[in-house]
Amino acid sequence: MAPRKTRSTSRDPRFVIQRHRARALHYDFRLEIDGVLVSWAVPKGVTLDPRARHLAVHVEDHPLDYADFEGAIPEGEYGGGDVIVWDRGTWELHGADDARAAVEAGEIHVDLHGEKLRGRVVLVRTGDASEKREQWLVLHKRDDDAVDGWDPEDHPLSVISGLDNDQVAANRGRIWTRDGGAN
Ligand code: MN
């Protein structure tokens, strides 16, 4: 039996979770799979709390370079509001050989190595696979990284800038770039 892997490697795919205040607050959970960011919009966010079962709506893939986007999106544009990089890191597929096939089959188990989130997270489709925006649930397994009662809203700062969404929104002219740098 192989020892439990506790450190990620640079070859592991990336994940990012962006806290996005648009018409409604949500967190965008994105997994790098085959060169794109496969994405779910999660109104209550991804959590370490193993008791939580949060709705996750499968949304369109995003390009890989969107993973570093933090800033304001003008009102009137799709997703208008403000975005922070709430967590990021790498992930490993668990219990399957092909991540894309797992998503298509409606269930994927991932081990996250993030700055806030660690441990095993499961995404499972609950809605009809023919729906335009499939309904899934996201949950954290009860493992060594689980924390009962952990609430993503208690950890509101960006992991790249240290800013919260209000600060990003207030500085929109200064920081609205794809990579979070000043302009
Ligand atoms: Mn979004």
Keywords:
single chain, 183 residues, mainly beta, 8-stranded antiparallel beta barrel, 3 helices, 9% helix, 40% strand, disordered C terminus, binds manganese (II) ion
Explain this structure to me?
- The protein is 9% helix and 40% strand.
- The chain has an 8-stranded antiparallel barrel with strand order 1-2-3-4-9-8-7-6.
- The chain is mostly beta strands and 183 residues long.
- It is globular and about 45 Å long.
- The protein has helices at residues 99-105, 165-170, 172-175, and strands at 14-21, 25-33, 36-42, 54-63, 71-73, 81-94, 107-114, 118-125, 135-140.
- Manganese (II) ion (MN) binds at residues 20, 22, 26, 28, 41, 79.
Query: What are the bound molecules?
Result: manganese (II) ion
Could you tell me the strand content as a percent range?
35-45%
Please summarize the sheet with the most strands. 8 strands, antiparallel, barrel
- Structural shape: globular
Oligomer: single chain
Radius of gyration: 16 Å
What is the average per-residue confidence, as pLDDT, rounded to a whole number?
90
Write down the secondary-structure element order.
Answer: EEEEEEHEEEHH
Contiguous helical run count: 3
| Spatial order of the strands forming the largest sheet | 1-2-3-4-9-8-7-6
The low-confidence parts are 175-183
Structural class: mainly beta
Helix content: under 10%
- Structure summary, number of beta strands: 9
| Measured distance between first and last alpha carbons | 51 Å
